[in-house]
Specification:
Layout: H1 3-15, H2 18-62, H3 74-97, H4 102-122, H5 129-145, H6 153-165, H7 171-192
């Protein structure tokens, strides 16, 4: 792969990280459901679904519990999962306990459901979390704002393609990630909102 193509693949992969989706999506849905006050709820959700998990992954990388912040090895993902899941579960319980806007709480619950599904698969096979979160986010955006949001589909494809090009995942791992992200997040979100 040429240096230019590798650079674009890394930019797409880093830009399409799960944390970035949550940093944007949680405040956006907070605003949609609760106006300016809802943005604060979205930011609280982002702390538990993006900020704290990033800090946990960085801590584990520095302590050499796993190789890097992307946690590429399947076995490392199993080791990293308890900390990340604890953060997301705590955030979910807080949002419901403090009566956050329904769309924010439903978003976090939907993404938690995706993470649980991915964790089960990870015990046997590596799957693309980038692709799962991107497709799950797109499914939720489409549910909230309508089918015109499907114009973002190429972004999900490009993120998945970057993971393949960087040899972080196979085509099958990306496709399964996309399918799980959309198939799990959309119904959970729609039921809970």
């Amino acid at each position: 792969m040429s240096r230019g193509k590798a650079r674009w693949a890394w930019l797409l992969s880093d830009g399409g990280e799960p944390r970035n989706w949550m940093l944007v999506l949680a405040p956006l849905l907070g605003w949609h459901d609760g106006g300016w006050a809802g943005i604060e709820w979205g930011l609280l959700a982002a702390v538990f679904t993006a900020v704290l998990p990033t800090l946990i992954l960085g801590f584990g990388e520095r302590r050499k519990y796993w190789g890097d912040r992307h946690v590429r090895r399947r076995q490392d993902r199993i080791a990293a999962a308890p900390g990340v899941m604890a953060s997301v579960i705590t955030g979910t319980m807080l949002l419901y306990g403090l009566q956050a806007p329904a769309e924010v709480a439903a978003l976090v619950t939907a993404m938690l459901s995706v993470l649980l599904a991915l964790l089960v698969i990870t015990f046997f096979w590596k799957v693309s979390v980038h692709s799962a979160v991107a497709s799950g986010a797109l499914a939720i955006l489409t549910s909230v704002f309508g089918p015109w949001m499907l114009v973002l589909t190429p972004l999900v494809v490009l993120i998945g393609g970057s993971r393949i090009r960087l040899r972080c995942h196979t085509v099958g791992q990306v496709i399964v990630g996309v399918l799980i992200g959309a198939a799990v997040s959309a119904p959970v979100f729609d039921i809970l909102r």
